[in-house]
């Protein structure tokens, strides 16, 4: 996605575009595809923007999330964000903690939910197990 896409979605939520907020957008774009937390962004951006607060990071992530620009999911009380808004599974390795995107047939999953009369607005699929590296080299 272009930077304008993220800037526009913040403007729609009535956020002024400040250097701090642009730094957050840069971090989000640099970590696409990928998964990140508010703490991670805060720790990386505060080197460049020393007056930034964790609350600012949260507010921006919340605005991007409600605009549908990023998705979020929770693992053991930690909220993760990602720019991949297509339906997919997030595979969490129980050994190394790495999160990987896996392709899932989202249409058939969602339509099987909707045949029961429910309407899906957001779907997250968490899959836990061992990643390829940890399976092949269990003691590494
Ligand atoms: Zn692993
Ligand atoms: Zn993902």
Molecular structure report:
With 140 residues, the protein is an alpha+beta fold. The chain has 2 domains: 80 residues, Arc Repressor Mutant, subunit A (Orthogonal Bundle), CATH 1.10.10.10; 48 residues, Dna Ligase, domain 1. The protein contains 6 helices and 5 strands; from the N terminus they run ααααββββαβα. It has a 3-stranded mixed beta sheet, with no helix packed on it. It starts with a helix and ends with a helix. It binds zinc ion (2 copies). The site of one zinc ion has 6 residues, from loops.
Q: At the third CATH level, what is the topology name of the largest domain?
A: Arc Repressor Mutant, subunit A
Given the C-alpha coordinates, what overall shape results? flat
H and E order: HHHHEEEEHEH
SS-based class:
alpha+beta
Q: Give the C-level CATH assignment of the largest domain.
A: Mainly Alpha
Can you identify the CATH superfamily of the largest domain? Winged helix-like DNA-binding domain superfamily/Winged helix DNA-binding domain
What separation lies between the terminal Cα atoms?
A: 36 Å
Spatial sequence of strands, sheet with the most strands: 4-3-5
* Sheet with the most strands, sense and barrel status: 3 strands, mixed
> In percent, how helical is the residue content?
40-55%
Q: Gyration radius, to the nearest Å?
A: 17 Å
CATH architecture of the largest domain: Orthogonal Bundle
Q: Roughly what fraction of the amino acids lie in strands?
A: 15-25%
What hetero molecules are in the model?
A: zinc ion
Uncertain residue ranges: none
Number of strands: 5
Number of helices: 6
How many independent structural domains? 2
Average pLDDT, rounded to a whole number, is: 93
